[in-house]
Every structure is written in C-alpha cells, then in structure tokens.
User: Fold these one by one.
Assistant:
Number 1:
Amino acid sequence: MFGPLTSKPGSSQANKTGSWRMGKKPKFLQKNCIACKMCILVCPENCVLGGEKNTYHCDYVYCKGCGLCAEICPKADIMMIEEGEQ
C-alpha cells in the first residue's frame, strides 16, 4: 500500500517569480472590496497581502500575473492592467 507522496517544502520566498510575469498584473482598486479574502485563497503564489476591507494589494515581486484574483473577485474590484501601467 502506498501513501501520499510528499516532498520537502521549497524555498518559494527566495524565488522571486514576479520577474517572469505574463505581461499583465493585478491592480487592486480598493473601492468595492468586501474583504471576502477569495483573492488570497486563490493566489498560487500567496502574494496578495492585506487584511481589512479595501486594504488588499499584491506583492509584485512574487506575482506571476495569472489573473486568478481578478477572475474570482465577486465585486470586480481587481483588474488586470498592462505591466507598464500604474
């Protein structure tokens, strides 16, 4: 009988994955946020930070630009923008 295969956790904090972002990045509008934390739950890099209503933002050092946070936001308070935009 085999159990689940697991490996030692990687050093994701040392791997700054934002350097190869896909050309877009999330912009947290901080207007209609209801603090549901869905963006935090769905982020594969755990780079969405914050904790109170309208205070969420992204750590672009680790963000890959996948857009999952913007896709899942029930209030459309996160939009994907081009890399050079603010």
Number 2:
Amino acid sequence: MSVVKKYMLLLLAPVLIVSCDNSRKDKTNKDKENQAVLAAKDSTTVQIIDSAYDYGKVTDGEKVAYNYRFKNSGNKPLVIISASSTCGCTIPEKPEKPVMPGEIGFIKVVFNSKGKVGSTHKLITVESNANPPFPELLLTGTVEEEKK
C-alpha cells in the first residue's frame, strides 16, 4: 500500500466514524418521535396512589428503596416509556410490560445516600401514554453523617 493511500485512509476513518454515529442519533430521535406519536394516539389515564415518599433519616451510605404505586384508570394499556431522576444517586425502574386497565403498577426507586449528607429532595420524571401526563414523583428525607 502506498504512503498516499495510507494517509487517505487515516484521514477518512474519523469521517466514517462520525457519520455512522449521526445515523444512530437520527434513529434514536426517530424512535422518540414515534413513541410520542403513539403515546398521543393511544392515551389512557393514570391514578397516582403514591406521589411522594419521605424516607425519614438514614445514615450516609445507606440505600433507600421504595415502590411508587399507580393505577391504570383508563380503558387502554398504560405504557411507561421512561423513568428518570434529577440525580445519578436515584435510580428508577419502570415496568417493562404495559399496565392493563384497572391494574396497579409500580415504579421502583433506589436512592444511594453515599456522600449526600443533609436534606434531600429528588424528583422522578415518568414519561407514559397517560393523558393528562404522569405527575412527577418526589423522594425526600435526611441523610446524617455516619457516627464513628
């Protein structure tokens, strides 16, 4: 292989990598748009049973787990598209299967208090096909320093 061909290959490699990444981003954006259209078309209603949880006081490093309950109060399957939190220390888990009309579902949240000494106020955002939209969930409490 000539020196010129080697340099051309080295110059083209980053361009190919970037263009592949862009097509992946386009596909991800298209998937999100499709989910939004599906959610608007096939909406249902949700009744929140637990919208806030105060875990009280825990010691730095403890993990707190809680299951927020909700009920599909509509007449179509309730699809939870995503669940996210305001901090990486709070991890929500959404149901993988649709919640059928009349059924109760759960959003499990695990909060890792390591390094979070003081008062905590975490919001969990849930995207679904509910109309009106799923309200934010709240996790509060106090993390105390570990006594030595």
